[in-house]
């Protein structure tokens, strides 16, 4: 589905209502729900296996028992697609993990995403599903979150885990960065 984001007009669509697993696109909703909670972005969150048991055995640069700010967790979730960061954000939500998943689904409903369902915050589950039409609504809504735009276009950033800096390098040639440079204009 191709949409003019200035007018929200659909330019082309093929099966826009076909429900499919959405994988890491899930993390965009995760970021929106975190920001909607208005929690302190500089608050350090501890990464503990008891907070992320679903991540057991999944590779991650986010080390167990480390502490990282909520903002850096968002950065890692959006730019490195770090599953442990996304899961940790959900576990540190008011009311916990289950409340976070309910908030994701409530947000989807509020946006009119009628064919969307979230069961976890990372995108690892094939049961996180949506349609191209619904994801367009999500993308349009994400424009109301300047921090998401800032973090998702970051080319390189330093993230600090437990007072130890780790450089995270991000691919410059993402579709978003190419579009922003005007290559597809």
UniProtKB/TrEMBL annotation:
- Provide the protein name: D-alanyl-D-alanine endopeptidase
Pfam families on file = Peptidase_S11
The residues that cross the membrane are none
Q: Which GO terms describe its molecular function?
A: serine-type D-Ala-D-Ala carboxypeptidase activity
Family named by the database record? Belongs to the peptidase S11 family.
Catalytic residues? 24, 27, 81
Q: Which PANTHER family match?
A: D-ALANYL-D-ALANINE CARBOXYPEPTIDASE, D-ALANYL-D-ALANINE ENDOPEPTIDASE
